[in-house]
Amino acid sequence: MTILVIGARGGVGRHVVEQLLAVGEPVRASVRDPRARADLPAAADVVTADLTRPDTLRRALDGVRRVFLYAPSAGAEGFAAVAAEAGLERVVLLSSGSVLLPGMERNAIAQEHRAVEDVLSAAGLPWVPVRPLVLASNSLRWAESIRSSGTVRLVHCDAVTAPVHERDVAAVAVTALGVGAEDAVAPDPSSAAVLTGPELISQRRQVEQIGQAIGRTLRIEELSPDQAREHYGRFSDPATVEAILQFLALAATGGSPCTPTVRRVLGRPGHTFEQWARDHAADFG
Ligand SMILES: NC(=O)c1ccc[n+]([C@@H]2O[C@H](COP(=O)([O-])OP(=O)(O)OC[C@H]3O[C@@H](n4cnc5c(N)ncnc54)[C@H](OP(=O)(O)O)[C@@H]3O)[C@@H](O)[C@H]2O)c1
């Protein structure tokens, strides 16, 4: 049974591909640009597909029963229509824990993910959400300034979150695809289904642990929310900047949880941020 991984070069998707291949599952991996095929393992059947171009999805879904779906900000409806025709057994959606988090009802990132979940439900697809709250890989946004100046600009430095390693998110997704433990993960609307890392850790401590992983002492430049708006506004649209600031303000008052979901699903604790920093030392060094 070939499994289609949409977003196969993504931070999570690349681990989904690797983990499926490691247990001998046939994988079809999607890229938008055929030149990116070299980034994927030779054992994967690489297909060119774009969620915003339903014609490309028909080809990608041919002969496929299960799909890992990168949460599309555009293209969810087109995917749902084609997927419904394809008679899939299961779609595992990389969604976001923010859809379940109290206080995030009006947050733009949560609303975007909720909208995608609603589209899959409305199409009658058999879908399973995988809902990480904070990906540890968000810290890769600090890589350039760490490499160039050893400095990280932060708002709410002492806000604590429980960042989850993308490898653990992928492992939960592989389980949800029914590989290894059939039906181990069912759609679960409770907040216990939010995926987090194994420990709460401040942004300040994350920077320290990255510094330890690369053998450098890093500086933190603390920003006010207005300075952060200006700084983040150079990389993200205003709605996303406000959504991030709102989430960090919530985290600064203890609103970002640490859940046992990864351990419950995988039967082992998730990787710590310290481990993530060691795994990614080359990105910061
Ligand atoms: N940051 C967080 O803390 C957090 C928390 C919860 C959920 N999330 C969600 O997780 C997702 C990000 O996951 P990630 O880090 O694995 O992603 P990523 O590294 O940004 O990679 C995105 C992947 O999706 C593919 N893609 C993008 N647009 C596409 C389209 N129109 N058609 C087909 N493929 C498309 C890209 O394919 P190409 O190879 O063709 O470029 C790429 O492989 C986002 O939806 C984000 O909202 C993030």
TrEMBL record:
The lineage of its organism: Bacteria, Bacillati, Actinomycetota, Actinomycetes, Kitasatosporales. This is NAD(P)H-binding protein. PANTHER family: PRESTALK A DIFFERENTIATION PROTEIN A, PTHR43162. Pfam families: NAD_binding_10 (PF13460). Transmembrane segments: none annotated. SUPFAM superfamilies: NAD(P)-binding Rossmann-fold domains. Residues 7-177 form the NAD(P)-binding domain. InterPro entries: Ergot_Alk_Oxidoreductase (IPR051604), NAD(P)-bd_dom (IPR016040), NAD(P)-bd_dom_sf (IPR036291).
